[in-house]
From TrEMBL:
Residues 499-637 form the Centrosomal protein of 76 kDa C-terminal domain. This is Centrosomal protein of 76 kDa. The keyword Cytoplasm applies. Residues 342-472 form the CEP76/DRC7 peptidase-like domain. InterPro entries: CEP76 (IPR052299), CEP76-C2 (IPR028926), CEP76_C (IPR056288), CEP76_N (IPR056289), CEPT76/DRC7_peptidase-like_dom (IPR056290), Papain-like_cys_pep_sf (IPR038765). GO terms for biological process: regulation of centriole replication. GO terms for cellular component: centriole; centrosome; protein-containing complex.
């Protein structure tokens, strides 16, 4: 509507017309009358949508679009839940400066693909995402986010939170900056915790901040850029606090947190000394008490896990395992050669980037399984060749121990080998890839493996037996890892529903693949004839593959085989090749397919009456995760 522009014009006009030379100022009433006369106020009231229906908190929202006035011609206004009885923090991002890495970046031409920055926010169970802006030295961020302060049974829900109540809310606004390149690959640029309560002590309840974003991992001491941020309370505060009161509160919280962390560190050192006294060889076991997050801050590992409910987005623990498995795997980037750069990510950074290391996957899967009421732990140990690895374990009430691999989605039952049995006795054959285990932990418990051998095969998971597992004091763990225990703990965000349209995306990838196959065959001097009916018949197979991955149950294969037999006439041969990806880049998928001799044989098939088929099926999961199944097939007349 461009309200501001129109109001400015009318005010200028009113002042010119109505200010007699002897009258030096107009009252607010005069100006409002002038606006009413010209119908501006009515227009604005029509455009605002007040919706008072309270959405059940069980439904995690999809990333909210910033609430702002939009031009009616360009987009339809989205309704936003503004409840006039609630207190909001209006956070505006007004551009960025000094993103020096993009100093040489040329101006993108209209319509040309370019790398973009996206800002993701999380505050008290609400998530937002900015519009993508082209990467530049001064990225053009202009977004406003309306964050509800007054959430989750904060005292009396009918009363509006006052300054003092809000001063006690220590949750920061977690901001994550993601860069997406032209191939849709994402990188984590910065992760920042914004302390918003300075606005409570500022005049008029409005404050402007410049936020310096630091890099991640090995670059956590290097500045990546600056964001200009404006904070405003809505409705405006009746009384603001003095800046001194706000600063004192923040200093007290920091002091309390520092003291709790110091005491835990003293306890952890003592625990480690005792652990080493059991057996000197324990020194080489993978007992991980602290881990560095993306900002290079050491945090107790138990703080990376918390029971997490997926609302209605995931129905079963196995579906949750599938969701974690389709999130991309990427080791933390390291400059130069050498060892593995270790970096555990906060959950928001992992979800926004949509990929992470094995520890990130294990922490998320463990959190989801705890949410489903299972007794779940993250295990830290090694795979073959001594490669450090993390996976998840659940302990059943009947004593069964199940390993869940968070990267592959596989589940393994663990039956320990008894080393004291005679050689002739039959021992269970382990199918899992894990070799050693140093410790297990969840949000409340930390246990170090103190059995004579740390081999997984012989390990006994009787976690209550202190001669096998040395526990940490639960109260000590809680003092720094329980939600709200310290202000330095990043709050866990809710999961968001997928924004990807499965059928549209499936169609797009399928069309691109048809084109790529035709071009490839043309280069080989071959013609391409597609058979749509055969392509359609491949759908049930793809659906049953995904169903099997999610449930470990195979179903519906007989019908698929029967349909194919009917579709392929006598004397013809049918070949099919299914393959699975977790990304949506058709060109990259095609290049991978060609590396498989089976698939290459189908795509480059020569013969009489060759008919080709390809079917793509995208299965969406929360966040932007998806499983992409592709099947190439051909039928031709066998001439021998």
């Amino acid at each position: 509507m461009d309200v501001h522009g129109r109001i400015r014009e009318i005010l200028a006009e009113t002042i010119r017309e109505e200010l007699a030379p002897d009258q030096q100022q107009l009252s607010t009433e005069d100006l409002i009358k002038a606006l009413k006369r010209r119908g501006i106020i009515d227009d604005v009231m029509k455009e605002l949508n007040f919706v008072t229906d309270n959405v059940d908190q069980e439904l995690p929202s999809s990333p909210k679009q910033p609430v702002c006035f939009t031009d009616r011609q360009s987009t339809l206004l989205k309704k936003t839940n503004i409840d006039p009885t609630r207190r909001y923090l209006y956070l505006q991002v007004l551009g960025g400066k000094a993103f020096l890495e993009h100093l040489q970046e040329p101006e993108p031409l209209p319509g040309q693909a370019c790398s973009t920055f996206t800002l993701c926010l999380h505050f008290r169970n609400q998530r937002f995402r900015s519009k993508p802006v082209p990467c530049a030295c001064e990225p053009d961020f202009h977004d406003g986010f309306l964050l509800e302060v007054h959430r989750e049974n904060l005292g009396d829900g009918t009363r509006m939170a006052d300054s003092t109540t809000m001063l006690s809310i220590s949750d920061p606004v977690h901001m994550v900056l993601i860069k997406t390149d032209i191939f849709a690959e994402t990188t984590l640029v910065a992760s920042y915790f914004l302390e918003w309560r300075s606005v409570l002590g500022s005049e008029n309840g409005v404050t402007n901040l410049t936020v310096e974003l630091m890099g991640v991992g090995t670059e956590s001491k290097v500045s990546v850029g600056i964001l200009n941020i404006k904070l405003e309370m809505y409705p405006p505060l009746n009384q603001t606090l003095s800046q001194e009161v706000v600063n004192t509160q923040l200093a007290l919280e920091r002091q309390k947190t520092a003291e709790k962390e110091r005491l835990f560190l003293v306890y952890a050192k003592q625990w480690w000394r005792e652990y080493l006294q059991i057996r000197p060889s324990h020194n080489s076991r993978l007992v991980k008490i602290f881990a560095q997050d993306e900002n290079g801050i050491n945090r107790p590992v138990c703080s990376y896990v918390k029971p997490l409910r997926a609302g209605r987005l995931l129905d079963t623990p196995r579906q949750a395992a599938r969701f974690v498995n389709v999130l991309g795997y990427e080791r933390a980037p390291v400059i130069g050669g050498g060892g593995k750069q270790e970096q555990w990510c906060t959950l928001l950074a992992f979800l926004c980037r949509n990929k992470g290391d094995c520890e990130d996957h294990a922490n998320l899967l463990c959190s989801l399984l705890l949410g489903y009421g299972l007794e779940a732990f993250v295990c830290v140990g090694t795979k073959a060749k001594g490669v450090p690895h993390a996976w998840v374990m659940t302990c059943g009430t009947d004593g069964t121990v199940t390993f869940w691999d968070s990267l592959t989605g596989h589940r393994y039952l663990h039956k320990p080998i008894n080393p004291d049995e005679p050689p002739a006795a039959e021992q269970p054959k382990p199918l899992y890839p894990y070799r050693t285990i140093g410790c297990v932990f969840n949000h409340q418990t930390f246990l170090g493996n103190c059995q004579p051998s740390d081999s997984v095969e012989t390990c006994v998971f009787d976690l209550n037996d202190e001669s096998k597992w040395k526990p940490m004091n639960e109260e000590a763990v809680k003092s720094v890892c329980a939600p709200g225990a310290t202000t330095s703990l990043p709050p866990f965000p809710p999961l968001c529903a997928s924004t990807i349209d499965a059928s549209v995306t499936s169609n797009e990838i399928e069309m691109q693949l048809r084109l790529l196959v035709s071009e490839h065959r043309k280069d080989l001097g071959l013609t391409t004839v597609w058979e749509d009916q055969l392509s359609y018949l491949l759908s049930p197979a793809l659906a049953s593959y995904e169903f099997e991955r999610t449930t470990s149950i195979s179903a519906g294969n007989e019908e698929f085989q029967d349909a194919i037999r009917r579709a392929v006439p006598d004397g013809h041969t049918f070949k099919g090749f299914p393959i699975h990806f977790v990304y949506r880049n058709a060109r990259r998928a095609f290049a991978t397919c060609l590396r498989s001799p089976f698939c290459e044989e189908i795509i480059c098939c020569r013969g009489d009456q060759v008919r080709l088929a390809v079917r793509v099926r995208v299965f969406t999961y929360p966040e932007s995760a998806c499983a992409v199944w592709i099947m190439f097939a051909c039928k031709y007349r066998s001439v021998l």
